[in-house]
Amino acid sequence: MADDDTDTDTDSTPDQQASDDAGESKPEGKKNDGKEEGKGKDDKKADDKKADDKKDDEQERREQFAEAAGDPLADALGGSSSRAGESQAYRSWIRTVRASAAAFVGGGNIGVLNITTGSGSTDRRGQAPGPVRSEVLTELVNRYVPPAGYDEFVTRLSSTRLLVLRGAPGTGRTATGLRLLDRLADSVARFGPDTDLRALTTADLEPQSGYLYELNPGSVPPAPAEVDRLRDCLAECGCYLVLIASHDIRHRDSFDGCIADCPLPDPEEVFRQAVEYELSRLPGKEQVLRQAAITRPGGMQTPAEVHWLIDHLISTVANSHPAVDLDVLNSDLATRYVSAWFEPLAGLPTTTEGDEQVRLASFRIALAVLNDSPFDLVAKAAEELAETILITRSPRRKPGRPVFARHREDYVANSRASMAPGTVKYLTVTAPATIVSFDDDRLPLAVLRQVWGLHNLRDPLLSWLESLSNDRRPQVYVRAALAIGLLTSWDFSYTFHERIEPWAMSEEPRRRWVAAVALDEASQNRDVAPVVREILDDWCEKDSLALRWTAAIALGYDLGLRDPDNTLKELRKLGSWQDGKLAQMASWAAARIFVRGGVKPVIEALGAWLDDDRRLVRQLGLLVIWRIADMKVGELEDHFDLTDASADGRWTRLANRKRWPLLVALADEDPALLDPYADLVWYLTRSAQAEEKSRATLKRWMRAGKKDPTCIGPVGRFLALLGDDKSDRERLLHILRSLRSDRDKPLPGPIADRFELAIERNIHITDQQA
Q1: Residue 380 CA: distances (Å) to CA of 247, 359, 367, 387, 724
Q2: Which residue pairs, CB below 8 angstroms and at least 24 apart, start in 524-530?
Q3: What is the pTM (predicted TM-score) of this model?
Q4: How far is 680 from 623, CA to CA, in rounded Å?
Q5: Inter-residue contact 382 to 359 (CB < 8 Å)
Q6: What is the overall mean pLDDT for the chain?
Q7: Burial degree of 53 (CB within 10 A; 0-12, 13-18, 19+)
Q8: What is the mean pLDDT of residues 470-483?
């Protein structure tokens, strides 16, 4: 190690560190060499001034190191304690949105099935008003899979004559209604959309018949007295009526005792039943259908989606088209499904009549962005988006909010979502919360894809996401930044110039952070990744603190890990630019690359940095080492590979050691890493500028044994390797003794004894020897 970072004075006091200019000899005392007294005084003054200047330089470097060791995102996002939920929001996004995006293709055509149009007349059979043909009912019976509670539906319809089936669109309510009526009535018919339930009489009903009618969403339901009169008419004629409805709290009073929730039938069973039905019709397609039954894509497909999949497979084989990836098709069919949620909105009036549908659509969009978050966060964000959209549709309006309306359960159920007890992370603990999420993990991506295709909605959508990214809660601002990145990947030229580039040049750290995270998320698209990397490389060369800051932060995410060697070169330049102005950000990014899996490249880079003849590069290396050494396993965000041959089982064991120092845990899992890690930390402990930070880190290591005794032995083994000579051991023992004598939180004697023995004898005491 260069002279400015190592301790060469083996006779120093236990807690003394080497100065950053250790190559210069220490000032000597005055010697009586027979020279003139006046000249001796001048020499002494010069020596004293030189010593004072050296102390000033040392102090300046200590302060510079302490500042660079701070949190680079504190100004942008607040302190680390307020950001405890970031990883929770990030992992949820990866599990749902990003996982679905990996299977997504850009829309349009797959094989011979155009997924942006209707799949044919089969979707509409039985939909027209009037009698339902017998062959339609026969096919329905053969393909039908009853949902949970079907037998109860039969019992209730038999006794009440009227049954309201509630559920989200496309979940099989109509099929269930027709199946119920076919089972109980002699004939089945549908009422048209213009039918007025309030005006129905016995003259409108055929004896022993069953009728199906779909209530218009948002329409005013009949009064309870009108429903009673209708039921009397049905009973008099021996008829049955099934109403298809969305969730609406107003139905509760009108149809009291007649409402049943119609859940989605088991998709796997629907798929199997559809295959068996097609086999009976098309025995020549047995091979492809049997294969489809084996390779059925996962997910909560609706019955209509299952039938689309089967029809597509049959048409692909019949027309000699190559088979397609079922997962890709499955993802795109979800986009087709949600299109039915948004396409009707184009015809809504700009008056208050259309407000309720806009609010429901806004809730679905907000849920797509904040999926798996506390309900109230989603509801608040949805109201803000609804207000933005309503004003955009009619700029002169000043829409209010339905303060006393109770749409909590309705919006959730009508979006194929559900609420469940969950937790939200605060600091190191969690608090209970009611979490809302889509029942189908494909829907967040499908919703965002659908609304992004509506060009006039883009600017309001981005403005809303920008406002969410300013929120103080990590569950909100993290997901908003990631959503902006996803949209950027779909139309880079539009979003980059409209939002990302101006934010990257902003004086506001929060705006720059959003730009960095958005670029990282956009780079998940393979076609966009090279463009993003080229932009960041260019920003690294710009004479702009804002652009270089944004580039450094962006390189600390997944993007930087894809080419770690090049990333670390860029971070080295950024960290030593203009007297280390960006050392804080560059060291943070390099440490994150280590945590996210770039263990080997980071270790190699640190070795080179510590041997570099430039002081700022060496300082950057020490900063990275300190950040890594100061981490606990419980602070990690994601899984990462320990070695090229590491397995999930190893990560599982590491994850169970949350209170362990990260380097100690890694070295304990892979002993081959112990010496390289110890060498790096040894440099840190010998640096004068890092004295305060390294001492605090080693204290955390020693105290970790009190919270998790299983790490005492491995920590002791690591400490033994740091005691390279007498001064090293004295320094470590001084820290240990200060912990022993701590009046508030003394280190327990047995733990201190084991550490002291390991340090003094430069050996590791195992649990069995203790």
Answers
A1: 20, 11, 11, 11, 59
A2: 524/98, 524/101, 524/485, 524/489, 524/558, 525/101, 525/489, 525/490, 528/488, 528/489, 528/492, 529/559, 529/562
A3: 0.82
A4: 11
A5: yes
A6: 83
A7: exposed
A8: 95
3-state SS, one letter per residue, for 135-153? HHHHHHHHHCCCCCCHHHH
The DSSP output letter for 285 is G
Between 273 and 58, where is the model more confident?
Answer: 273
CA distance 419 to 612: 56
Which are the contacts of 497, defined by CB distance < 8 A and separation ≥ 6?
none
Cβ contact 189:131 at 8 Å: yes
**C-alpha closest to that of 188 among 248, 241, 252:** 241
User: How many helices (H) and strands (E) would you count in the chain?
Assistant: 36, 11
**DSSP 3-state of 583:** helix
How far is 371 from 439, CA to CA, in rounded Å? 10
**pLDDT above 90 coverage of the chain, percent:** 59
Q: What is the dihedral of CA 286, 288, 290, 294, to 10 degrees?
A: 180
Q: What share of the chain is helix, strand, coil (3-state, %, to 5)?
A: 60, 5, 30
Distance from C-alpha of 24 to C-alpha of 36, rounded to nearest angstrom: 26
User: Long-range contacts made by residues 264-267, C-beta under 8 angstroms, separation at least 24?
Assistant: 264/147, 264/167, 264/171, 264/172, 264/300, 264/302, 264/416, 264/439, 265/145, 265/146, 265/147, 265/172, 265/303, 266/145, 267/299, 267/300, 267/301, 267/302, 267/306
Higher pLDDT, 301 or 48: 301
Contact of 667 with 640, CB cutoff 8 Å: no
